[in-house]
Design brief:
CATH class of the largest domain: Alpha Beta
CATH architecture of the largest domain: 3-Layer(aba) Sandwich
Number of domains: 2
Number of helices: 15
Strand content: 15-25%
Structural class: alpha/beta
Radius of gyration: 25 Å
Shape: elongated
Largest sheet: 8 strands, mixed
Strand order of the largest sheet: 3-4-5-2-6-7-1-8
Distance between the termini: 33 Å
Order of helices and strands: HHEHEHHEEEEHEHEHHHEEEEHEHEHEHH
Low-confidence stretches: 1-7, 448-455
Mean pLDDT: 90
């Protein structure tokens, strides 16, 4: 059976690296590398879906099978992420091999082979890099290298210094895979800059791959990516470019002139109204609530309630007084997951206050608040993709919401913080409410279908 046709991971015996040319190039170069120069450092720099992980799994298993008593570390910043990606891919690649020849300890992410070789799993989100120092390795593989910012660079160098400590294995290698990131990232300076001129680095090699180079991906997957990604992020995630995206503002795809107006807008009678909240306490950090609708594939934000101080009951009264919440219509409640916590002052949570107000008025509603908030990056990427995606589609419009318009134009990152918004600005918080709603609504609409999962 052709694994490409059924969409499964190829086993060790099924794997054919000639179908995707960069895979064969990497395998051939590893085999022909002069290991007298030192540890071979390989970076697989590829866009999403370009088959980096299966290539890395294949190289790891072959290293262990071809070298008795080899010890190969697989690592990622967070262990749960590692087990869901590279570790799982290795297990899938081993399927079809008689299990008498290897054993698996899932709790610690370890695989032992009958020739004495082993694969071990490590992570360093706790920043205890020194725990890597006792290892003796013949090889290492790091998944999503550019997840490691700042001090986490130390993890790579600690691991590198442990590779090559098994003298009976004469082909020490450390191979990393990642989607492209900013040219300011240390991985760019370490791998790509030394190979960007005519003189190539003798031990560090970089291999590039693009999403569309993988013939096994279904066309609808790539089409979904182009829908989910804004043009700048598509250059990274689809076309494999190392470009700078972190501009002065977060929502760099937003265009106030084409997406915002001062007109009164209301959804069609049959369209549910989405109400989303961001709860805050503190000076300059108002409770921010938003009324939206999803029609014809587009989000429309058409009313906002911005109240200084965490007075949820006042926000609900505003929506009632303005005629946004009325009997006879269907509503969906979204927002900050932390609003489920009860206040010591009232013994009621924000969402209990909201539900009680709706129930008293006989309002029909659906509660859509998730157990936890989405990743900050996911909120940002989702809004940017709906402002304008790779296809040039604009699917977010702002009607008579001046604070939201200001927030989308001006919200920036906090200085010195990684991916954290500057929440000292009054206009920032309503953009968070928008993101909470959009991320959850999109997930609910697409649950059970294909998603690109790169946001």
């Amino acid at each position: 059976m052709d694994f490409a046709l059924i969409g499964s991971t190829p086993t060790l015996t099924e794997f054919n690296p000639t179908v995707i040319p960069f895979q064969k190039k990497v395998i051939d170069d590893i085999a022909g590398y002069d290991y007298s120069k030192g540890t071979h450092e390989v970076l697989l720099s590829g866009s999403v879906g370009s088959a980096k992980s299966i290539l890395m799994a294949h190289i790891i298993i072959r290293h262990c099978l071809e070298n008795n008593r080899a010890r190969f570390l697989i690592g990622r910043r967070a262990l749960p992420d590692l087990k869901d990606t590279l570790y799982l891919k290795i297990l899938e690649h081993l399927e079809g091999i008689d299990q008498r020849y290897y054993r698996v300890w899932h709790n610690i992410g370890k695989i032992w082979f009958v020739n004495g070789s082993e694969i071990i799993s490590k992570s360093w989100a706790d920043k205890r890099y020194s725990k890597l120092r006792s290892l003796e390795l013949s090889g290492a593989a790091i998944e999503e290298l550019t997840e490691n910012h700042g001090d986490d660079e130390q993890a790579y160098h600690e691991i590198k210094m442990r590779v090559g400590r098994l003298p009976h294995v004469r082909c020490p290698i450390i191979i990393s895979a990642t989607n492209p990131d900013s040219p300011g990232h240390w991985a760019y300076k370490y791998f790509i800059s030394p190979n960007s001129t005519g003189a190539k680095h003798p031990t560090r090699h970089v291999y590039y791959s693009r999403t569309e180079d993988n013939p096994f991906l279904p066309p609808q997957y790539i089409a979904q990516l182009k829908s989910d990604l804004d043009p700048k992020r598509a250059r990274r995630m689809l076309y494999g470019e190392w470009i700078e995206i972190a501009d002065e503002v977060i929502y760099y795809q937003y265009n106030s002139e084409s997406q915002a107006d001062k007109a009164i807008w209301r959804p069609r009678p049959e369209t549910p109204i989405l109400i989303s909240f961001d709860f805050n306490i503190g000076e300059g950090k108002p409770l921010s609530a938003l009324a939206l609708a999803y029609e014809d594939g587009c989000f429309h934000a058409f009313d906002e309630v911005i109240i200084d101080g965490a007075r949820t009951d006042e926000a609900m009264k505003e929506f009632f007084d303005r005629g946004i919440i009325v009997p006879g219509k269907q509503y969906e409640i979204y927002g900050d997951a932390s609003g489920k916590a009860r206040h010591t002052s009232s013994k009621r949570s924000d969402y209990e206050i909201i539900k009680e107000a709706l129930d008293r008025a006989g309002i029909s509603y659906k509660y859509c608040v998730p157990l936890s908030n989405p990743a900050i990056r996911t909120r940002h990427n989702t809004i940017n993709a709906y402002c304008k995606n790779e296809r040039g589609e604009v699917r977010l419009f702002i009607h008579n919401c001046p604070t939201l318009d200001q927030g989308l134009r001006l919200t920036a990152f906090k200085k010195g913080a990684n991916l954290i918004e500057d929440d000292s600005k009054r206009y920032q918080h309503v953009t968070t409410a928008l993101g909470y709603c959009m991320v959850r609504k999109i997930a609910d609409m697409t649950r059970g279908g294909m998603r690109s999962m790169v946001l």
